[in-house]
Specification:
CATH class of the largest domain: Mainly Alpha
Helix content: 40-55%
Shape: flat
Number of strands: 18
Strand order of the largest sheet: 2-3-1-7-8
Largest sheet: 5 strands, antiparallel
Strand content: 5-15%
Number of helices: 25
Radius of gyration: 35 Å
CATH topology of the largest domain: Hypothetical protein af1432
């Protein structure tokens, strides 16, 4: 089959930088889905994404979809011919729809009768005829919740579109996309190569853009920026601080990256490190540079979108922009320290946290009480109350007002400046950890108590006013908060009863809603399942359910029991014991009323039931001791010794004896056997 390369380019005004990678990936994925649905074979796909374009080049696209064999069933044979054997109207119509004569039709026999049928080959559709629809559908499926209209056009896209390239080999596939006719004219760099570029064919695209000063492939441009910034920082005798999110954003802002170094006054290095980084990195999109000693240097690196004939002018312009930003930060730093954190905390009564949940002062009081309860359980010491009282004070400072991302961090600095204990200072910053997936966790007990209390209060409070996350909407970041709670508990090995803490938080809310703690626990449990599957490799859904069924609500304890269960299931006796537990559970479920009393050894009539009872009596004390120590693997290993007497019991004892007294006694024995196993997990939930 003949093949050609297919090129689609959407030329736009500057696309939103944060969304660019997702838009590029979605366009490629949607086009591949469309080609697959149309049955069009193809080769390698290359994606291109710059501030002014989204493009996809697909090699070796077939010129048409393969022919396919079709079989159609027509009317029943009995209804297809009249008494003289002439075809009826039904047969004639079916034959016409297939493009053949009635004599060319076949017959199909089924258990319901005989039917006219057609077997033939349906020619594959030409790719050139299908691509327009595939492209339009791919664009319509892009993740662009806020679309724009421009001019008098009715078309909508994330930014105004100025040109569309659609080439199949050297051929322009003439159609209309987003209200524009397709063509072969693209654009290069806005300043270096402003003239239109006519593409000879689809394969000429990457080289043509490179000549026009556009590095079109996102990954190639990203690596060029990364290596260029690193090399320039090393030439300055330092090391560039390259945050991956900033690198992606800068990559999405330029087409022809040129790293340029700039300087700022040494006096600004007296500011807290995080303040300088926030100013340079988060607000100006520059890369900070630190020296060989690990301290910030007075350098930054910006990435220009133009190879200027006078780089010094570009450098001076960036230095001129960053200087007033750092001056503002220095002013805030001086002014903020004129008041104590206690004075800032007193202002929290005038700031609303959430209309139905009160002010930040109200939240502070709730968090303090909850943090003290947590502190008592994890031996966090005496600084938790003070840390909780000052936790939100820095929200009222000018620095955090200008740099919200520094909340907590500035609290740490201001607390240290007024002589607070080191544990309090650290906890003020750690209360917000983890801020995102993969972020660091609180390292101090005080920080752990405060971070847990803050997140739990937000979760329960927002659920209590019926504002829980729906679909992809999570304005209060509750999914992130739930994962943060779990990571602190699991990775910090904190054996805390989560359900109890949620219930305490529910009681502290200004509008307590009965059941909100249970809702939040179920919400967190959903995330715990996924987290356990990641942390304990080789586990199954059934294993996690078996552990959760026990009912203890300490995530750290749940994980410990899951690990013990995983190791237990590797024992040769495990499968038989799991099957026995399932059988016991089924018996007890059907006849629960017969298992309410205690076991009476005097009522035993079979040796197997006496032996099982004696074995259970022997194993229960060491199992209980192991459980009390949290030695779950040891307790399950001890219980594995019951396999032989359990197997013998089921082999020779009729549980559902006609004698009611014997039946009740045997069910009670099985109830006690199941109870012994269920301290770690409900084995009856396992397959087998």
């Amino acid at each position: 089959m003949s093949t050609r390369s297919l090129l689609l380019e959407i030329g736009t005004e500057e696309l939103p930088p944060v969304a660019l990678p997702a838009l590029s990936a979605a366009l490629a994925e949607n086009l591949l889905k469309g080609l697959a649905a149309a049955g069009i074979p193809h080769g390698k796909l290359r994606s291109f994404a710059t501030p002014r374009r989204l493009a996809v080049l697909i090699e070796d696209c077939g010129e048409k979809a393969p022919d396919r064999q079709v079989e159609r069933r027509g009317p029943p044979v009995a209804n297809s011919f009249d008494a003289s054997g002439a075809p009826t109207q039904a047969a004639l119509a079916f034959a016409a729809s297939c493009g053949v004569e009635v004599a060319q039709l076949s017959r199909m026999s089924t258990d319901k009768g005989s039917w006219l049928s057609f077997r033939g080959t349906e020619p594959g559709a030409a790719t050139s005829a299908s691509i327009g629809g595939i492209v339009r559908e791919a664009i319509a499926g892009l993740p662009t919740p806020k679309r724009m209209r421009w001019g008098e056009r009715s078309a909508e896209f994330v930014r105004p579109v100025h040109w569309i390239v659609l080439l199949f080999g050297a051929e322009v596939l003439a159609t209309e996309i987003l209200g524009l006719p397709t063509g072969r004219i693209t654009r290069g760099h806005r300043f270096h190569a402003p003239r239109p570029i006519s593409l000879k064919n689809a394969d000429a695209y990457p080289a043509a853009l490179r000549r026009a000063k556009v590095v079109a492939e996102f990954a190639v441009r990203r690596e060029s920026i990364r290596s260029g910034v690193i090399a320039l920082a090393e030439a300055l005798g330092g090391r560039a601080l390259i945050e991956p999110g900033l690198l992606d954003e800068v990559t999405a802002l330029v087409e022809w990256p040129v790293p340029i170094a700039g300087r700022f006054e040494e006096r600004f290095l007296a500011l807290p490190r995080e303040v300088v980084i926030a100013t340079v990195q988060d607000h100006q999109r520059y890369f900070p540079v630190e020296g060989a000693d690990g301290k910030l240097a007075g350098w930054f690196i910006t990435v220009s979108n133009i190879a200027s004939r006078d780089p010094a002018k570009v450098r001076e312009g960036n230095e001129r922009v960053v200087r007033p930003r750092l001056s503002d930060a220095a002013f805030f730093w001086e002014q903020d320290r004129k008041l104590s954190l206690d004075e800032y905390a007193a202002k929290l009564d005038g700031v609303t946290f959430q209309a139905k949940l009160g002010t930040y002062a109200d939240k502070t009081r709730r968090v303090r009480e909850l943090a003290l309860a947590i502190a008592a359980r994890i031996d966090a010491g005496s600084d938790v109350g003070r840390a909780a009282a000052l936790a939100k004070a820095d929200l009222m400072t000018a620095m955090v007002g200008e740099f919200p991302e520094l909340q907590g961090t500035m609290g740490r600095y201001y607390a240290a400046a007024q002589g607070e204990p080191a544990a309090v200072c650290l906890a003020l910053e750690e209360q917000y950890l983890p801020r995102h997936a993969g972020d660091t966790l609180p390292t101090s007990k005080t920080g752990q108590a405060l971070a847990l209390a803050d997140k739990i209060d937000s979760l329960v409070g927002i659920f209590s006013i019926d504002q829980k996350p729906t679909g992809t909407k999570d304005p209060f970041g509750l999914r992130r908060a739930a994962l943060g709670v779990l990571r602190i508990l699991l990775e910090g090995d904190l054996d805390l009863d989560l359900r109890q803490l949620l219930e305490l938080s529910e009681r502290l809310q200004p509008q307590p809603k009965p059941g909100s703690a249970a809702e939040v626990y179920a919400f967190i449990l959903e995330r715990l399942r996924g987290l356990l599957a990641e942390r304990v490799s080789g586990t199954t859904i059934e294993m996690i359910d078996a552990v959760l069924a026990v009912g203890r609500s300490s995530p750290a304890d749940i994980e410990a029991r899951l690990r013990a269960l995983q190791q237990f299931l590797e024992l040769p006796d495990a499968a038989s014991l799991a099957a026995a537990n399932k059988r016991i559970a089924n018996l007890l479920k059907k006849t629960a009323e017969g298992a309410t009393g205690g076991v009476d050894p005097a009522r035993f009539t079979e040796a197997a039931e006496r032996e099982l009872y004696q074995a259970l009596q022997q194993v229960e004390p060491p199992v209980a001791a192991a459980m009390a120590r949290g030695a779950y693997r040891e307790s399950l290993a001890l219980l594995a010794s019951l396999r032989t007497p359990i197997d013998a019991f089921f082999a020779s004892v009729m549980v559902m004896d006609e004698n009611l007294s014997r039946r009740e006694n045997r069910l009670a024995l099985l109830r006690d056997v199941r109870a012994a196993f269920s301290g770690v997990a409900d084995l009856s939930r396992l397959p087998g």
